[in-house]
Design goal:
- This protein has twelve helices and 20 strands.
- By secondary structure, the chain is α/β, with parallel strands linked by helices.
- It has a domain of 247 residues: 3-Layer(aba) Sandwich (Carbamate kinase), CATH 3.40.1160.10.
- It has an eight-stranded mixed beta sheet with strand order 3-6-2-1-9-11-12-10, sandwiched between helices.
- The relative contact order is 0.10.
- The structure holds aspartic acid (ASP) and magnesium ion (MG).
- The site of aspartic acid (ASP) has 12 residues, from helix 5.
Length: 436
């Protein structure tokens, strides 16, 4: 028989975001939390973000000296923010009587491709971390960075510390990857817009992917993808209060524990812009050309609508959305195409936003779109573009209308604290099963 002492210790990866390590007091608080986990007997790896607005300040610093900072040097610069947090936390932990060691992404064995400022993790060679854990040390890893196959320092894109944490959790077969932030978990809507938004007990990887892609800021999109692909259990929780936050886990695990509500959350993003190309020639290959020049310019196209020309061979119109910050590069990339293809007009609108309903429950229920669009209609919100997936409905609306749209939908689908949720979009109510 195996005795309890012989059981392998739990391994936890704890990630602390920028606000959770913003000043000396908060670093000490995070360090105490890390030490508590160690004292409970876990093997502990902590991934830290840069403190407060450090990454923004470093970026601004670069632009003070150079109009187009070299991406390799940008990564040398940006990666320092996370190193500062880790070194400071290690000092605190050592003072608390535990052994801690801080590591850069490179020292931690995080190997990436060579695309500076948005590198992808290719491999995690965690032997050094494993060795330190075996010696009983607490390991602090600088988030958001790695070393490229060309042996240069790279960073993983904004919010990348989440991905560092998930990748380490996967490599170490950790029991859980805990994401500590300044909010208590994942909410049914942004609590700044909807005061009675509810903290979700759990969401599925698929829902979290849709939510991250449609504006929820709790987790970096790539981190969710990585967690899903490697089956990493993620727990998003507050660094300022105890108690459980939100678990992100597989659809199967969730199905076993609760009945699915129709809609899980309403998300939104404000930073959208719309581009419309009129009188596009109606022939094969045109849409491909348009999207290729945008992809080559690094522009991320989101929603695309192309209408059917009135008669075959007549001209078509195409509209799509891009992040607002990509609007200028998008227009610059499209301008030369106007003559090449004989496009009519290139019109833009920078004041767009997007509201989305996400929920695995809608996969098996018709009528969610009908209800959502009616609710927006009654609120006088004009829907400009629509896109759907099996578990998401997104509408592009004017930016000044997005808050109202979020609130109306959140109320109509009864997602708030204390609300009951409809079994079926057309009626019959039952109480929420998942309330804590
Ligand atoms: N410090 C980086 C950022 O602000 C990475 C992170 O915090 O996840 O985006
Ligand atoms: Mg973050």
């Amino acid at each position: 028989m195996v005795s309890a002492e012989a059981l392998p210790a739990r391994t936890v990866v704890m990630k602390f975001g920028g606000t959770s390590v913003a000043d000396a007091e908060r670093i000490k608080r995070a360090a105490r939390r890390i030490v508590e986990a160690r004292e409970e007997g876990s093997r502990v790896v902590a991934v830290l973000s840069a403190r407060g607005k450090t990454t923004d300040e470093l970026t601004a610093m670069a632009h003070e000296v150079s109009p187009r900072p070299d991406p390799r040097e940008m990564d040398m610069l940006l990666s320092t923010g996370e190193r500062i947090s880790c070194a400071l936390a290690a000092m605190v932990i050592n003072d608390l009587g535990h052994e801690a060691i801080s590591l850069t992404g490179s020292q931690a064995g995080i190997v990436t491709d060579t695309s500076h400022t948005r590198a992808r993790i290719l491999d995690v060679r965690a032997t050094r971390i494993e060795a330190a854990l075996d010696e009983g040390q607490i390991v602090l890893v600088a988030g958001f960075q790695g070393v490229s196959t060309a042996r240069d320092v790279t960073t993983l894109g904004r919010g990348g510390s989440d991905t560092t944490a998930v990748a380490l959790a996967a490599a170490l077969s950790a029991d859980v990857c805990e994401i500590y932030t300044d909010v208590a978990g994942v909410f049914s809507a942004d609590p700044r817009v909807v005061p009675n938004a509810r903290k979700l007990v759990q969401v599925s990887f698929e829902e979290m992917l849709e939510m991250a892609a449609s504006g929820a800021k709790v987790l970096q999109l790539r981190a969710v993808e990585y967690a899903r692909n490697h089956g990493v259990r993620v727990h998003c929780r507050s660094s300022f209060e105890d108690g459980p936050g939100t678990f992100v886990r597989s659809e199967e695990e969730i199905e076993e524990t609760m009945e699915r509500p129709l809609v899980t959350a309403v998300t939104h993003s404000r930073e959208e812009a719309r581009v419309t190309l009129t009188r596009l020639p109606d022939r094969p290959g045109v849409a491909g050309r348009v999207m290729t020049v945008l992809a080559d310019a690094g522009v991320n196209v989101d929603m695309i609508i192309q209408n059917e020309p009135e008669s075959p061979g007549a001209a078509a119109d195409m509209s799509f959305t891009v992040p607002r910050s990509d609007l200028l590069p998008a227009c610059e990339a499209l301008e030369p195409l106007r003559e090449e293809l004989g496009i009519g007009e290139l019109a833009t609108d920078a004041a767009m936003a997007k509201v989305s309903l996400v929920g695995a429950g809608m996969r098996s229920h018709p009528g969610v779109a009908a209800k959502a669009f009616s609710v927006l209609g009654q609120a006088g919100v004009n829907i400009q573009m629509i896109s759907t997936s099996p578990i998401k409905i997104s509408c592009v609306v004017r930016e000044e209308e997005v808050d109202a749209a979020v609130r109306e939908l959140h109320t109509a689908f009864e997602l708030g604290v204390g609300a009951v949720q409809p079994e079926d979009p057309r009626g019959v109510h039952r109480p929420v099963v998942s309330s804590p």
